[in-house]
Specification:
alpha/beta; Inosine-uridine Nucleoside N-ribohydrolase, Chain A; nine-stranded mixed β-sheet; 9 strands; globular; binds beta-D-ribofuranose; binds calcium ion
Length: 320
């Protein structure tokens, strides 16, 4: 059976880089195209980083297209200094000869989704501006999408604010558009994102491995947390971040999910928060999906050692 087709929307980014390495190497997924959006770095940098990561992975010529430079409504609110000035936490990769598709991100996504033999899974690892524009301009893609799996949001606390996660906070209107699209949606949020870590000795091992893709993964795991100013290196955390959403895609049995009515808070101090109604009463009263709430699948738990092992197995498979 051919591997299920996915399209990726990224803001590469240290952990988007890990996600790309995993996605192009995993035998059970076929990456048909990658769209880029400003987020962890400028759009131009995101495109360059994505190409360089594909080079390191020895990936075929997967089309990569540039998309939105800013959110739908507000200006980009904050440079994400967490990933360093170039978005790769200071990791320097060789120049690339790959060039961006002449298509816009929206058009590339549209064409790849409609051209696929079977329904496509759209995986969003960044602010969802490109995806919202795709769904708005080309609603016909909905029938060709298996689901949208996005990293973003939280059923608990936030990271960029007390309640908001960065990707949703950066473009909350776009996230609303995705959640209200009627397409099956899975939210891989901070509830699991921050928990999926790789032990440091594996990161050290990878960083000195022979294959450049293993080495890149190791360096990203070790450098993740290094700030642009270089002054405040944090202790090792080892989070695989966005790559966890791909591990969920390939190994859903290692995670637990639940269906909950969900909305994005669009105003005030809580702007960008994903409000996940986990009250039993919402279920008892048959209120799942009540307007304007939409029921989405929320990833809430995981087997950390097994998921970390699944990630490592795929990264180690670069060595043959
Ligand atoms: C999200 O923001 C970025 O820092 C990561 O790449 C991830 O997509 C986490 O809030
Ligand atoms: Ca990201």
């Amino acid at each position: 059976m051919p591997a299920p087709t996915i399209v990726l929307d990224v803001d590469t980014g240290t952990d988007d880089a890990l996600a790309i390495l995993y996605a192009v190497q995993h035998p059970d997924v076929a990456v048909a195209g990658i769209s880029c959006v400003a987020g962890n770095a400028s759009l131009e940098q995101v495109v360059a980083n994505t190409h360089k990561v594909l080079d390191v992975a020895g990936a075929p010529l997967i089309p990569v297209a540039a998309g939105a430079v800013k959110p739908l409504i507000e200006r980009a609110q904050q440079e994400d200094a967490f990933h360093g000035v170039d978005g790769l936490g200071g990791v320097v990769l060789p120049d690339t000869e790959r060039t961006a598709s002449p298509l816009t991100a929206v058009e590339l996504l549209r064409q790849q989704i409609l051209a696929a033999d079977a329904k496509v899974t759209l995986v969003g690892l960044a602010p969802q501006t490109n995806i919202a524009m795709l769904l708005t301009m080309h609603p016909e893609v909905a029938d060709h999408l298996e689901r949208i799996l996005f990293m973003g949001g939280s059923a608990g606390t936030g990271n960029i604010t007390a309640v908001a996660e960065f990707n949703v906070w950066q473009d909350p209107e776009a996230a609303t558009c995705v959640i209200e699209s009627g397409i099956p949606v899975t939210m891989y949020g901070l509830d699991v994102f921050t928990r999926l870590t790789v032990p440091e000795h594996h990161a050290q091992r990878l960083a000195s491995a022979d294959h450049p893709a293993q080495r890149l993964a190791g360096e990203l795991l070790l450098r993740r947390g290094a700030r642009a100013d270089g002054l405040s290196e944090q202790a090792y955390v080892g989070q695989i971040g966005d790559a966890g959403a791909l591990v969920y895609l390939t190994h859903p049995e290692l995670f637990t999910t639940a269906s909950h009515p969900t909305r994005v808070n669009l105003s005030g101090i809580g702007r960008g928060q994903t409000i996940v109604d986990r009250r039993a009463i919402a279920q008892d009263a048959g209120e799942l999906g009540r307007d304007p709430w939409r029921t989405i699948e929320v990833v809430l738990g995981l087997d950390v050692p097994a998921a970390a092992q699944a990630f490592l197995e795929t990264i180690d498979s670069f060595a043959g």
